[in-house]
Amino acid sequence: MTELFTVLVGLLLLNIVVGLARVLRGPSAIDRMLASEMFSTSAVAILLLMAFILDKHELLDVALVLALLAALTVVTFVIRVWSELEAPKSDNDPGDTLK
Amino acid sequence: MGGVVLVFDVLLAAALIWLAWQATHTPGLFRAVISFIIFGLLMALAWVRLEAPDIALAEAAIGAGATGALLLSALGRLAVTDEAGTPWQERADLTFWIPAGLALLGLLTLAAWYLPSPGLGQEVQASLPDSGVQNPVTAVLLNFRAFDTLLEIGVLLLATIAIWSLGPMPMPGAQAIISPVLPALGRILFPMFALVSIYLLWRGSHAPGGAFSAGAVIGAGGILSILAGARPWLTGSAYGPWRVLLSLGLSAMLAVALGVIVLGQPFFAYPTHLAGTIVLLLELAAGLSIAMSLVALYLAGQPPTHWDGESLRQ
Amino acid sequence: MSLNHWLGAVLVISGLPFFFLGTLGLLRFPDVYTRLHALAKSDNVALGFVCLGLAVYSGSLITGLKLLLIWLLMLVASAAGASLIGRTALARGIKPWGV
C-alpha cells in the first residue's frame, strides 16, 4: 500500500508544480496568493501521506503546524497589503500596483 | 518504486531552484515574497525527504508563520509609501553573482566531501542517557551545545532591542473592510495555537519539537491576534511585567550556566540527575522569549505604554 | 491486506481528483471569485477524503483524531480566508465575471 501512497505523493507534487504557473502568470497579487494557499493544502496532504509511507508519525505534527498557520499568511495579506493599496480607478482595473 | 521517488526528488529540487530564482530576480516585490513563502513550504518537504523532521518542523513553524507575516507586512508598508514598482535588480550584478555563486557551491561541495564520515551521531547517541532527554536534537541544542543556543537567544533579544530603539511602533491605518471573521478567527484559533505550542514543547524531550518550534507557533498566534485587533501590551506596567519575558530565556540560560559552577560543575555542565528538569525549564523559558520576540519584531517599533480606546481598529 | 487498508486507500484516492480540479480551476477560471470557489474544493473535500482515508487506514483512534483536527484547522483557515478575500475584493470594486 505504501507504493500506492508514493505514487499519490508524486502526483500531488506534480499538482503543485503545475499550479506554479499561476504564480508566474499572475496577473494580480491575489491570484498569486490563492496559488500559495492551494499549495499549503497540497503540502499538508503530502506530509500526511509521507507520515504513513515512512511510518514516522512525528510528520503528522509538521502537518498540524502547517494547518494551524495556514490562516496567518492570507490574513496578513488581506489586512496589511491588499487593504492598504489604493482603491481601483475603474471597473476593469483590479487596482493592484503590486505585481 | 525507485522511479517515482526519483521523479519526486527531481521535481522538488527543480521547483525549489526555480522559486529561489524567482524570489531573488523577479521584478515585482510581491511576486518575490510569494515565491519565498512557497519556497519555505517546499523546503519543509525537502527536509522530510532528507530525514530531518526536526528541521522540517522548525521550517514549517517559522517559514509558514512569522516570516511570511513579517515580509507581507513590510511589503504593505512599502506599497503605501512607495507606489512605483521597484526594478531593483540590475543586470550587471549577474556578472558578479553567477561566478561568486558557482565558487561558493564548489567550496560547499568540497567541504561536504571532506566531512568526517559517520559524523558525531554515534557520540551523541552514546551520551544521550546523560542528557536528561531522549531526543538527540534537543540534547544537542539545550545540553551538549547549550552555549550556541544561549548566543542565538541573545541575538534575538538584541534584534528586538535594536528595532525598538529605532522609534515607536507605526500604527496601522483604519481597516477598509469591517469583517466579523477576524475577531472570531482570533478567538477560535488562539487557544489552538497555545495547545499545539505546549504539545510541541512537551514532545521536544522525546520527539521532534522543542522550544524553537513551540515559541514560533505561539508567536505566530500572537501575530494573528494583533492582526485581529488585539493590543500588543508588551510595554507599560499597567498590563503586567510582560516585557520581562523578552529576556527570560537569556537570563535563565545564563543563570543555569553560572549556577552549575557554584555546584562544582564546569560552565554549562548540568548535574546528570538534574539534567532532565533543567532542560525542560530552559525550554520553557527560551520558548516564551522566542514567542515574545517574534511578536515584538512584528510590531516594527516600540509599542506605546498607554492605549486609548478599545483596540487598534476602532 | 485487511479491509480497513483497502477502504482507506479507496478514500484517499477519491480525494485526489479534487486536488487536480482545484488546480485546474485555479489555472482556467476567469476571476478571483470563481478561483476561490475552485480552491475551496481542494481545501475541504480533497483534504477531507485524504484525512478520512488515512484515519481508516491507520485504525488508531488517536491518529484519527489528530487527522480530524488537521482537517478542521484547514477548514477554518480556508473559510476565513475565502470570506476575507471575497469581502475585500467586492469592497475594492472587482466585478464578478459575467455580471
Topology readout:
The complex is a heterotrimer of chains A (99), B (314) and C (99).
Chain A: H1 2-25, H2 29-53, H3 59-82
Helix pairs in contact in A: 1-2, 2-3
Chain B: H1 2-25, H2 29-49, H3 53-81, H4 93-113, H5 121-131, H6 136-144, H7 146-165, H8 181-203, H9 211-227, H10 243-262, H11 275-299
Chain C: H1 3-28, H2 32-58, H3 61-91
Helix pairs in contact in C: 1-2, 2-3
- Tally of contiguous helical segments of chain B: 11
Biggest sheet descriptor of chain C? none
Strand content of chain B: under 5%
N to C succession of SSEs of chain B? HHHHHHHHHHH
Overall mean confidence score, pLDDT of chain C: 88
Structure description:
The complex is a heterotrimer of chains A (99), B (314) and C (99). Chain A contains 3 helices and no strands. By secondary structure, chain A is mostly helical. Chain A has one domain (2-82). In chain A, α1 runs antiparallel to α2. By secondary structure, chain B is an all-alpha fold. The longest helix of chain B is centred in the N-terminal third of the chain and has 29 residues, at 53-81. Chain B is globular and about 60 Å long. Chain C is mostly helical. Chain C has one domain. Chain C contains 3 helices and no strands. In chain C, α2 packs antiparallel against α3. Classes of the chains: A mainly alpha (99), B mainly alpha (314), C mainly alpha (99).
